[in-house]
Amino acid sequence: MTLPDLDFDDMDVEPGWMEVPPISLSPQFLEIAACPACRSGLAIDYEAGTLVCLNQDCALIYPVRDGIPILLIDEARRPEDLAPDHG
After folding, report:
1. 52 contact partners, CB below 8 Å, separation of at least 6
2. Would you say 48 and 73 are in contact if contact means Cβ atoms under 8 Å apart?
3. In 3D, which of 31, 37, 24 has the Cα closest to residue 64?
């Protein structure tokens, strides 16, 4: 099977097509999900497409890829890691 050559410069795409996809996690998942680092609850950051630990001392941010929460501490980021560098 041969795939057609695509010319991305000529493609008619909607503005924002590369935006973060919406997260669709069940309320039941959020009731039982916990931060692997501190065991606190998690909340959805719909704008960033991530899960955020509710414990302010921890506050790890976990990615969601293809609708699947990646609850691995090694994959998580701290809020200060995401802040713009002003120095």
Report:
1. 42, 43, 44, 45, 59, 60, 61, 62
2. no
3. 24
Handedness of CA 66, 67, 72, 73 (dihedral sign): positive
Q: What span, in angstroms and rounded, lies between the C-alpha atoms of 57 and 77?
A: 13
In this structure, the number of other CB atoms found within 10 A of the CB of residue 63 comes to 16
Q: What does CATH list as the number for 24-82?
A: 2.20.25.10
- Is residue 46 pLDDT above 80, yes or no? yes
The residue ranges of every structural domain in the chain are 24-82
pLDDT at 31 over 50: yes
Q: What is the pTM of this model?
A: 0.70
Which strands, in side-by-side order, build the sheet including 50-53?
Answer: 42-45, 50-53, 61-65, 68-69
